[in-house]
Prior knowledge:
The chain is of the alpha+beta class and about 500 residues long. It has helices at about 85-100, 120-135, 150-155, 170-185, 190, 205-210, 220-230, 255-265, 275-285, 305-325, 345, 400-410; strands at about 5-10, 15-20, 25-30, 40, 45-50, 55-60, 70-80, 105-110, 140-145, 165-170, 195-200, 230-240, 245-250, 250-255, 290-300, 355-360, 365-370, 375, 380, 390-400, 425-435, 440-445, 445-450, 455-465. A hairpin with a 6-residue loop joins strand 1 and strand 2 (about 15-20). The longest helix has 23 residues, at about 305-325. It is elongated and about 80 Å long. The chain starts with 5 loop residues before the first strand and ends in a 26-residue tail after the last strand. Adenosine-5'-triphosphate (ATP) binds next to helix 4. Adenosine-5'-triphosphate (ATP) binds near residues 145, 146, 149 and 202.
Amino acid sequence: MSPPTTxxxxxxxxxxxxxxxxxxxxxxxxxxxxxxxxxQVPLRDVLWAAVDNGVFELSxxxxxxxxxMYILLNMSxxxxxxxxxxxTAFADALMAAAYPALQRQRRLKVFVNPKSGxxxxxxxxxxxxxxxxxxxxxxxxxxxxxxxxxxxxxxxxLPLDRYDAIVIMSGDGLIHEVFNGFLAHAEPSRAFRTPxxxxxxxxxxALAINxxxxxxxxxxxxxxxxxxxxxxxxxxxxxxxQGGKEYMxxxxxxxxxxxxLDLGTEHLRFMGGQRFLVGFIYGLIxxxxxxxxxxxxxxxxxxxxxxxxxxxxxxxxxxxxxxxAQGPASEDGAAAFGAPPDPKLADASDEEEDPEWVTFDRxxxxxxxxxxxxxxxxxxxxxVSLPTDGLIDVTVQERTTRxxxxxxxxxxxxxxxxxxxxxxxxxxxxxxVEPADSKGWLSVDGEAFPLEPYExxxxxxxxxxxxxxxxxxxDFDLPKKGKQPAPRPQAAP
Length: 493
Ligand SMILES: Nc1ncnc2c1ncn2[C@@H]1O[C@H](COP(=O)(O)OP(=O)(O)OP(=O)(O)O)[C@@H](O)[C@H]1O
């Protein structure tokens, strides 16, 4: 239920301020403020309100335009003794409405990688993120990483009771480290329940894009808000075994063209995200096959059904989120988006499914498997991925003409390649790869692994992320009428 309209008026004459809590919105009118004489923000963006030592304090993130960047507003003003009861009551009501069934003042373990992306993370953290966490009165334990794998080592020994979430300001590489730190923790299942949330500052920030959406992922303040207000969202993780050792992958594994462009373009780092596109074009010009044997434990492979399932799951998650956001105020942060489904139950309705291992036996250009729709801001590789369907999305690009592959680049941000006949898409419980030779790369969450035999198995709902929505943020649907995709031939088992 939305809170009733409540108003607080403070000060007099030119210094008068009026605060109105109206449904899901806070309105502030302060004629004396030259920059923001009137502000309207959704309650979601309110970070703090309190009366402290006779001063009314209010912090919120605000935007000048709906699609603009967040700006932190800290307002404060004296409260007379006569106004003290009404100001305190207003602040309490505002906080209750701004944190519905959400824990306040989260205790955050924050990792910032100074070397991530263009190397500006420290400055951005100090300028933008730190003031937001301070405004929300979060308890921050900050580490600027000083060498590779430092975050992983620290997470392996993390005192789990000490933190409500782990915040990672870097690219996807440091998130990979954190999940692998959990794997080596003395209490792995408890460790994996610690929510993880990204603040994008790397060259690949897929998790931030998937949680926040393409637009908000450009605004690190939106990511900070997610660390403060996001709700725990379970996610499947992908257990990769190679040479008898287990690794945890949260995002993707790739071979062939995709791994080459991911790992073989380090020298083009100065280009930022553009280096992946350049690498893709270079790979297409070389047009090499990827000599591997791929076996997949397939749950189903009907592209249209996958889209319908994804849309239905998103609707359900959004309804759950909306109910939670309207829920009674509480300081209990345990509200999650429900338990992950049993993957066997998820497909119980589909009697034609064959849970046996099948072998993909056509020449392929790349294999790309993972969790989470976007793998970079330009590529919507797994548009039907769901956080907790207990399945991994496995795509195998069969060898085709260069022209067909070049055409696919254009719509890759929209996921157009999903509909290519030669792009085989499987929902799978597990898959195995046996490379014919060891020349080339295996990329796991963007990190280099040897091109040796490996197997991936889904660990349903093992990990926890933070989300404002309860589902990934993307726009993908069945093609409009008149633009029907051609029927896709099954890869022969
Ligand atoms: N201070 C540091 N110096 C050098 N490397 C570091 C430091 N801190 C972390 N690292 C390593 O930097 C890598 C950066 O990965 P991450 O993906 O998070 O950022 P990125 O800028 O997107 O990098 P990449 O493009 O390589 O993926 C991680 O493997 C991590 O171990």
